[in-house]
Inverse folding.
């Protein structure tokens, strides 16, 4: 055996698990090319590195993407569903939910300091980040002042996979409490298809008929899903 082969550094290299070199290479590639050049499972690996430091996480990252469909759907999944995947404990699931919270905070910041109607792409991005990949239907309202600045962003209800009860009079009552001049309604379709249902259309018409005489404008009703979004205003439904 040569001196090189018997040296402590050689022994250490022989003992190092293979994934350590992989982690270094993946981090370097992210630094060089950014997230857009990386598939979802590799971005998921990068997140899992910090949660699970002493293990090869590539199989787990691939299992999560296979189970939920995409990076966005993984971080949007409920904690209990994440923990159904072997290898995901409570601490790792919490780390994934922190990533989701950071994404929401980032996109919400883009619409909170300027007129909402002047930053429509940011509004859509925020709504999709907040709701598009949830596995239950949610109904939220953006309350705006007379300059169309955001006063409040509130989830009014959470329901089943295909229904959330919405009460137009309660929505308008809340708008009056906040002295809001305008509303944007947002809800998700967990099926992925953002096409409005007949119930969506009826509820929107009812709410507009109650809000308009009180001087509260309904700017839009946006439905988001994995496959895109639908704007009632854009579809001439308002």
């Amino acid at each position: 055996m040569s001196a090189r082969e018997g040296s402590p550094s050689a022994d250490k290299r022989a003992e190092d698990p293979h994934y350590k070199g992989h982690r270094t290479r993946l981090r370097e590639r992210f630094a060089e090319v950014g997230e857009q050049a990386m598939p979802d499972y590799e971005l998921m690996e990068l997140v899992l590195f910090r949660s699970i430091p002493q293990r090869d996480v590539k199989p787990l990252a691939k299992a999560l993407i296979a189970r939920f469909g995409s990076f966005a759907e993984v971080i949007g999944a409920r904690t209990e569903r994440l923990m159904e995947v072997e290898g995901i404990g409570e601490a790792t699931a919490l780390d994934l939910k922190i990533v989701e919270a950071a994404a929401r905070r980032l996109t919400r910041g883009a619409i909170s300091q300027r007129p909402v109607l002047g930053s429509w792409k940011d509004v859509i991005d925020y709504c999709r980040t907040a709701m598009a990949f949830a596995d239950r239907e949610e109904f939220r309202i953006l309350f705006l002042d007379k300059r169309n600045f955001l006063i409040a962003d509130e989830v009014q209800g959470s329901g089943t996979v295909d229904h959330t009860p919405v009460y137009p009079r309660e929505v308008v009552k809340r708008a009056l409490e906040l002295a809001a001049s305008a509303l944007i309604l947002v809800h998700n379709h967990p099926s992925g298809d953002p096409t409005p249902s007949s119930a969506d259309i009826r509820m929107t018409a009812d709410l507009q008929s109650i809000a308009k005489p009180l001087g509260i404008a309904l700017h839009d009703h946006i439905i988001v899903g994995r496959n895109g979004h639908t704007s009632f205003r854009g579809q001439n439904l308002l």
